[in-house]
Amino acid sequence: xxxxxxxxxxxxxxxxxxxxxxxxxxxxxxxxxxxxxxxxxxxxxxxxxxxxxxxxxxxxxxxxxxxxxxxxxxx
Length: 75
Hints:
Order of helices and strands: EEEEHE
Strand content: 25-35%
Largest sheet: 3 strands, antiparallel
C-alpha cells in the first residue's frame, strides 16, 4: 500500500507531516488515502502538487509482515 504525507509547519517553526485523508465513499468519515494502483497514485500526487507544491508531498510504502517465532525448551 502506498500512502501520501502532507507537510505542514507548526506555530513553533517545526515541520511535520500528516497522512493525506479522503472522504469515504459510503459515509462522511475521513479515511487515510492508500492505494496499490500506481496510476491512481500518480494522479492524486499531481492534483496535490497543484495545491501544496512538490516540496510538501511525500509518498511512502506501508509494508507489513508477520514474524513467526518458535521457542523450544531445552532440558
